[in-house]
Amino acid sequence: MKKKTLVILAGLFFLLIFSTSALSAEFWASKNSTTYHYPTCRIAKKIKAENLVKFQTPAEAKKAGYQPCKICKPPLPQ
Question: How far is residue 40's CA from residue 57's CA, in Å, rounded to a whole number?
Answer without folding.
Answer: 16
